[in-house]
Design goal:
Number of domains: 2
Number of helices: 9
CATH topology of the largest domain: Rossmann fold
CATH superfamily of the largest domain: Cobalamin-binding domain
Structural class: alpha/beta
Oligomer: single chain
Low-confidence stretches: none
Mean pLDDT: 91
Strand order of the largest sheet: 2-1-3-4-5
CATH architecture of the largest domain: 3-Layer(aba) Sandwich
CATH class of the largest domain: Alpha Beta
Number of strands: 5
Helix content: 55-70%
Strand content: 5-15%
Length: 215
């Protein structure tokens, strides 16, 4: 039953059905299913498949938008329960955003949700954010970790600029930086001086825990 519900949630995202996704999320909670598992085993694989379909040319931007709406509809139901269930000490403060010139937010939003579920205090500054925006948010929130997403090869360079801006602001020594996004690689992360690279939301959580020293 649990596995079947996860598959249904994934399918609602892939099919771009916000109404179905919302109804399934409510049904999952009524059945007493773990909201985190519904996200990690249902919504995350679904949105990953959407990304693969987009990359292969089978899906286009309008498909991405409606699929993202389906994911958000389910998240809006699952997240409040998640936070109710997981009241505990904050393990780290994260500033999360999509870099300047890039309007993609599906992956970033999912990473933020998963980090929140795992005890992080997440400030999502949104999309199309400059290096200065990241620095300002770090100062304002007293963050110990930055997550910078870039989904285009043309915007990857902005991840390096964020690290440079943190250095210029005298903050680099006290903050860890992780990067991600479809064109981003471990080699790229190393080249720009990032502290780590995550290819998906699940690995982003594992990396974040390592970077802040909680595992």
């Amino acid at each position: 039953m649990v596995e079947e519900m996860h598959k249904k949630l994934a399918r609602a995202v892939v099919d771009g059905e916000p109404g179905d996704a919302e109804a399934l999320a409510k049904e999952a909670l009524e059945q007493g299913l773990d909201p985190l598992a519904c996200i990690a085993e249902g919504l995350a694989p679904g949105i990953q498949q959407v990304g693969e379909l987009f990359a292969s040319g089978e899906y286009f931007l309008p498909d991405l938008i409606i699929c993202a709406d389906a994911m958000k509809a389910a998240l809006d139901i699952l997240e409040p329960r998640l936070l109710e269930d997981q009241k505990r000490d904050i393990v780290g403060r994260v500033v999360l955003g999509t870099v300047e010139g890039d309007l993609h937010e599906i992956g970033k939003t999912l990473v933020g949700t998963m980090l929140t579920a795992n005890g992080f205090d997440v400030t999502d500054i949104g999309i199309d954010k400059s290096a200065a925006d990241f620095v300002d948010a770090v100062k304002d929130k007293g963050a110990t970790l930055v997550g910078a997403s870039a989904l285009l090869t043309t915007t990857m360079l902005q991840q390096g600029k964020i690290i440079e801006a943190l250095q210029e602001a005298g903050l680099r020594d006290q903050i860890k930086v992780m990067v991600g996004g479809a064109p981003v690689t471990e080699e790229w992360a190393s080249k720009i001086g990032a502290d780590g690279y995550a290819e998906d939301a699940i690995s982003a959580v594992a990396l974040a825990k390592i970077l802040v020293g909680v595992q």
